[in-house]
Amino acid sequence: MPSTSISASLPDLTGRFIVEDTIELVALLGNGSFGKVYKGFHVEDKNYLAVKCMPRYEPDSAAHRIQEKELTHHGSLSGHDGVIQFLGDHTEGDFVFAVLELADDGDLYSAIVDRQIFVDNTPLIKNTMNELIDAVDYIHREGIFHRDLKPENILCDANGSNIRLADFGLSTRDELTKDFGCGTQYYIYPESMNSTWANYSARLADLWALSVIFATMIGGGIPWTSTDAEDPYYSAFCNNADYLYETLPITREASELLQRCFHPEPWKRPSIMQFRKAVNAVESFTDLNRDVVAPPTFPPTGPSATLAQSSNTLYHTESSSYSTSSVYSDSSAASEVSTPPTSPLSSAGSGRVPSPPTVQVQVATAQNSRPMLPTCREFLTRQR
């Protein structure tokens, strides 16, 4: 894949001093889709930073324009607590370095999957969602739309607080955009999948992704693999308003909120502030004592369907806290991606489902595969 070759083509700069010898690259944290991420040490201030190293492109190239857009957008948003701080960029030789705040407690993905801190914890879910909504509302008020909101691009402290958005590689200032299929497959706005439309709303695309993240937090798994009509889970939801209630361990009240968020008519979905009010009004999100049933279209499971730890999946793992997150990877690439299997249920407690067919979408790719979000059945098995 192009993203793999670009990252692989960059040398390991560990031990190098940059920015007039003020920052030492002390450790490689991970390989992003379009660069390498280092832990940096500021020799004068005696503090640690994150440093993203990217190739230097020709000034008139499309890659250069995309890179400049990411740096400019992120830099303009760094005055808010809900955005990872962008401390500057520096061009040196064949490389462009973005210097960022180091947030080494991990991301929202780790909080949901690895630490499972949101399980049956309504107060914590509300607190985290309020912070996340505030951050998204802020960038929208500043006229920037993220277009790749997902747990991997949201940093947080170990307790799920101190939410910060990261990775603005797909961001835009165009509220109405023609970049169809832009984002990461599980969180893509359905209207952005229909290229027969004249355009779609980048603002509403972010709100849709926010709603999918919310569903993942309260249900323990991604509700569908795509908003394409061919996806059996999304199709089941479109044909049965109670589908999420029947397949996720959530309360009726939470299910009704998700029905509003995922209404087939965009103008009937809540605004971001209406969404916040509705989240805070729910008494409880999770019901672990209720049986849920697998949908009849659920694919077979078994050893042959185990998730392959390959270089072309969206999720990735490595040993350090930052390398378990894609938040410092450049997501500005359109690639053919073989996505990892995620689904609301598994008919076998430890089973995995086959990956869906590859699709051409503009996505944030990762170089090292990360385990998928748990299926709902696995989630329930662990909690009971």
TrEMBL record:
It comes from the Eukaryota. One of its GO terms (molecular function) is protein serine/threonine kinase activity. Residues 332-384 are annotated as: Disordered. Residues 358-370 have a biased composition (Polar residues). ATP binds at K52. GO terms for cellular component: nucleus. Keywords: ATP-binding, Kinase, Nucleotide-binding, Serine/threonine-protein kinase, Transferase. The keyword Cell cycle does not apply. Belongs to the protein kinase superfamily. This is Kinase-like domain-containing protein.
